Amino acid sequence: MEIIKTPFQDLLIIKPIIFKDERGDFYEVYHEDKFALMGFNSKFVQDNQSVSKKGVIRGLHFQKPPFAQAKLVRVVQGVALDVAVDLRKSSPTFGKHYFLVLSSDNHLQLFIPEGFAHGFAALEDNTVLSYKCSNYYHKESEGTLSFDDPDLNIHWQTENPIVSAKDREGLLFKNFVSPF
Description:
The protein has two helices and 13 strands, in the order ββββαβββββββββα. By secondary structure, it is mainly beta. It has a single domain (2-175), classed as Jelly Rolls (Sandwich). The strands form three sheets. A six-stranded antiparallel beta sheet has the order 1-2-10-7-12-5, with no helix packed on it. It is globular. The protein starts with a strand and ends in a 12-residue tail after the last helix.
């Protein structure tokens, strides 16, 4: 596996080694010992998966401490624009977002540490996004930022987005008091 740093501290791209032959391909998605050797100290306790139609935007979600979550995100099928927003007050990238196209073809994963909001847009029908979480879901600790916040200025690469009522009611960043 190759670790690719982003301009955001601790937000990392994981590029697997892919073995291809006439049958197809094979690669390790996660190996706890190898991740530990690369400096990852997150222990994952829950796996989540969603299937989305083209144009669906999910997010921007986070969980407040002490139930904050690190995530290891990948696309099993299809293509997604994956977005992470830095909520860490002391970070030089506080309030900025990072995006990466994840697909079943590029096999990339995004490691999102605690202190980030996360969301994605499905760029194809039947996009399957799978992610590991370092903490269990805790409803009372969840938070949502507005996906279309003009201050965040995220270009989701989709027209006429399909968004849940909960996500449409997300907080504007200017009204958000970060617990991180």
